[in-house]
Design goal:
The longest helix is centred in the N-terminal third of the chain and has 24 residues. The protein is 32% helix and 21% strand. The N terminus is likely disordered. It starts with 17 loop residues before the first strand and ends in a 15-residue tail after the last helix. By secondary structure, the protein is an alpha/beta fold. The chain has 2 domains: 216 residues, FAD/NAD(P)-binding domain, CATH 3.50.50; 143 residues, FAD/NAD(P)-binding domain (3-Layer(bba) Sandwich), CATH 3.50.50.60. Strands 9-8-7-4-1-10-22 form a 7-stranded mixed β-sheet. Strands 12-19-13-14-15 form a 5-stranded parallel β-sheet. The chain has a 3-stranded antiparallel β-sheet with strand order 16-17-18. It is globular. Belongs to the NADH dehydrogenase family. Keywords: FAD, Flavoprotein, NAD, Oxidoreductase. InterPro entries: FAD/NAD-bd_sf, FAD/NAD-binding_dom, NDH-2. Pfam families: Pyr_redox_2.
Length: 489
């Protein structure tokens, strides 16, 4: 096998076995690499103790799992983000660094490359990568050859051509966006507290969230709860001064928890003076004015877009089969349909749901399936390398839980419906059990315990988004006009 260079003058250590390229460091990417690493390590210990000097899988003189496969993980970030904790990070209940899991720490047996795959030619078993090293060298992109491909790039925000959205919208898919939104909300309260202009004050205290799924509802509920608490420290801002608006294009929110729990959530939010508008779309947010399809207009400095996701663009830059929604067509064994040595799971894959009685139904693109798919995927890759039978992925959907702020939540798990404090407690217990590594579990639990003993933090660190602003000003540059403007440094 020909080993390609990662960047000019830099080549991975040669490995006599197959190279498994994992594209993406999210749920599927990290867990697949983690399971492969563990299985290979365990196999290596067994081989060294029981097959000294013998033959391993028909290759003379090769012993241990490290001879069986080399794992290369390509990820745009050096960490995996546990997205269910983003709303709590935005509310200040969890430190942002405890919402992420460092890939290099949990994957010491893998080669981790920080970058992105820009194109994949599976017929040639070649991936075109743009890494930090290749960019620094001015090389642009480099090619990397592989034997087995795992495509798990996840998804990106699905946006619509709404006027002003690109200029004023805020996303909620990354930890950076979550902390940026927290800083932004507190900054708007500071603006409202210090301005004498009623129009500026009204716009600063109006918060519009678009999308009634998990991300939108949990982000709005947690931030409203945090902002409501923060008003006790402002002499001239009261909870009733703020307008929180949830805009949903369909007739229900949180479809994952069922229709009854969805209606309960609407009642709960409206009881907190949150304006929930169903069957409504955002038509425009130009000039910091949110214009809705029902004719309402809200001057606002905050528009949070959480209206769904779409497959990662790299899928369109491959020669692999995709469905009408742009996802890879996969079999129940998590292999790409009609293609050998290519695998996928999670948001990027259309995987048939073998537990459903509904013909043609596919697994929902959520973390519950992604984590379990990753385990089966890793085992099937190893089985394929060893010439062993593959297994189908099947998992009956257990249900969903959602947080609506401190001590408030909804849940629909195994047919049982919970609301209020029991659902909130179940939400915390479930996600604490699912967040990767004991290190993160202990840190999150410690922060929850401390937050129950002390008051909430309401500090905005908006300057973190422009760390060089003060130095640029001192050196003769210009201060950013708005903290939400992008710093080109």
């Amino acid at each position: 096998m020909v080993k390609a260079e990662i960047s000019e003058g830099t080549t991975p250590a040669p490995a006599p076995g197959a190279r498994v390229l994992v594209v993406g460091g999210g749920y599927v990417g990290m867990y697949t690499a983690l399971h492969l690493q563990r299985k290979l390590k365990a196999k290596g210990r067994k081989s060294r103790s029981g097959d000294k000097g013998g033959r391993e899988h028909g290759r003379p003189g090769q012993h241990g799992a490290h001879d069986e496969a080399e794992i290369v993980v390509v990820s745009p970030d050096p960490y995996m983000t546990y997205q269910p904790f983003l709303p709590e990070a935005a509310a200040g209940n969890i430190s942002p660094r405890h919402v992420v899991v460092p890939l290099r720490r949990v994957l010491p047996g893998c080669t981790v490359l920080i970058g992105e795959a820009t194109a994949i030619d599976h017929a040639r078993r070649t991936a075109t990568l743009s890494t930090l090293g290749s960019e620094a060298e001015g090389a642009g992109t480099v090619e990397l050859r592989y034997d087995e491909l795992v495509l798990a790039p996840g998804s990106v925000s699905r946006t619509l051509p709404v006027p002003g959205l690109a200029d004023h919208g805020i996303g909620f898919k990354s930890v950076e966006e979550a902390i940026g939104l927290r800083n932004h909300v507190i900054e708007q309260m500071d603006i409202a507290s210090s301005t004498r202009d009623p129009a500026v004050r009204d716009a600063a205290l109006t918060f519009v969230f678009v999308g009634g799924g998990y991300a939108g509802v949990e982000a709005l509920a947690e931030l409203e709860d945090m902002a409501r608490y923060a008003t006790r420290y402002y002499h001239n801002v009261k909870p009733e001064d703020m307008k929180w608006i949830l805009v949903e294009a369909t007739g229900r929110i949180l479809p994952e928890v069922g229709e009854e729990m969805g209606r309960y959530t609407v009642r709960e939010l409206r009881a907190r003076n949150i304006d929930v508008r169903l069957d409504t779309r955002l038509d425009s947010c130009e000039d910091r004015v949110a214009v809705l399809s029902d004719g309402a207009r809200f001057p606002t400095r905050t528009v949070v877009w959480t209206a769904g996701v779409k497959p990662h663009p790299v899928l369109a830059a491959t020669d692999l089969p995709r469905d009408a929604r742009g996802r890879l067509r996969c079999t129940a064994r998590l292999g790409v349909e009609g293609v050998e040595h290519a695998w996928a799971a999670g948001d990027a894959a259309a995987v048939p749901d073998l537990t459903s009685d509904e013909p043609g139904k596919e697994c929902a693109p959520n973390a519950q399936h992604a984590v379990r798919q990753a385990k089966v995927l890793a085992e099937n890759i190893l089985a394929s390398l060893r010439g062993e039978p593959l297994q189908d992925y099947r998992h009956a959907y257990a249900g969903s839980v959602a947080s609506l702020g401190l001590h408030k939540g909804v849940a629909h798990v195994y047919g049982r419906k919970l609301k209020g404090y029991p659902a909130w407690l179940m939400h915390r217990v479930y996600h604490l059990s699912r967040v990767p590594t004991f290190n993160r579990k202990a840190r999150v639990l410690a922060e929850w315990t401390l937050s129950g003993l002390f008051k909430r933090e309401i500090v905005s660190l908006g300057s973190l988004e422009h760390p060089r602003a003060e130095f640029k000003l001192a050196a003769g540059g210009e201060r950013p006009k708005d903290r939400n403007d992008t710093d080109d440094t």
